Amino acid sequence: MRKYTLKAASFLLIALILLTTFQTNSFIAVAEQSKENNRNNSEDFNSKKREEYGLSTDAFTIRKLIEKYDGEKIIYEDFYMTVEEKKELDSRFSHQNEFVPKVKEKAKELLTEDDFGGLYVSQEEGGILYVGVKNLNKKNNDRLNGIKNEYKDETKVKFIDMKHSEKELTIILDKIQNKWSTYAIKGIGLQYTSLDTINNKIEIGLINNTAEAQQLFRDEYGDLFIFYKTEPSVHKEEGDTSTYVNPMQGGTNLHNYTAGNNCSAGFAAKSNAENLYWMVTAGHCYGTGALNVVYHPTQSSTNKLTLGVAVGNVRNSGKVDAMLIGVGLRSQLSNKLYYQYVGSKTLTSYATGSSEYVGQHVCIASRSNDSCGTILSTSLNYDDQTDITAANYTAIPGDSGGTIFGNGVLFGVHEGDQQLSGSTVEGYTQVENILTYFDISPILD
Question: What would be an example GO MF term here (predicted)?
Fold first, then answer.
């Protein structure tokens, strides 16, 4: 663990200056303006979203859900569904979040890491858990049954034969990452790499996706790859507009007055070594200089908080794109999220990196946008950023730093647009990497 502490004297000096500008109505929960995105009444959109989670896509059913929406028996949370469907999905996701990590550990124990081929969940099939096994036909059935029993629902577990172990592919990914600059010197436009768990391959995005470039990787590492043509600098960092709440919640606006940009609040945290409190957002939201002045929601808002962040509290490389914004009092922070569709959400736990998996349900709460999707990769690398988690939720300007969560679990903070498998996807920094780097703990009560 990287031990990170802030000199208390420096922080207190900054806090003393900044706290004098806090508004007198600080402790009243206020919302100046509701979020701008509305329910999507497109039958095609709702059909695709429902298909992603294995729900009925019957056109007549979807039309009736849209027409008879009442917010009680028929609700909208990213798409239209009945209350019964919502309960079924919540139960499914909770079960997955609890038991998939246990299955992963049991598989590594009974098969060893050299035979474990990774795992993923197919929400489209109603939540089937696929466990990859290298040389499946040679494995003892008692060991496979031991893995299946760990999930507590054997009907939802299927084994698939894999040519490579997850460990083998991860080692190759690390080797490529370490030679990134070498490939650049050779004129190979390597844009990103990612572990493709479903296809048991490594995905590579190339600006010049030529046969010669592809062959270079095959000659060096073997036939392990799926190649995609990508454009340079596809990664976008986002930022926009205004909702005031106090105590602060994740998913609301932060205006960096110094940098002249806007981002979203991610989650509240406390230093492990000292009595210091923070709101965490994306590191690329920082401007220049030793100190940035940050307002919530904006500098021009009637009701606002005035905050500050020192350059030493910023990281935007490796596994972390995050920064800590100093908050004077614990009472100005909460574990709530400002989430449009069904009101405030609450964070009660956080995900470790090893507990994430392809197919896992995640949502974003941000100033401009709230939506949900599933994890596509837990190991996306580009340039100087590594181990980004990629997912197919929707992000728009204003979302950088927004909270990534699901069923009360904190997963991380949003970074921005990425590319994967020929499409634009979203990426976020995994929360455990943030906590480790800054030596902080999330506020979950």
Answer: serine-type endopeptidase activity
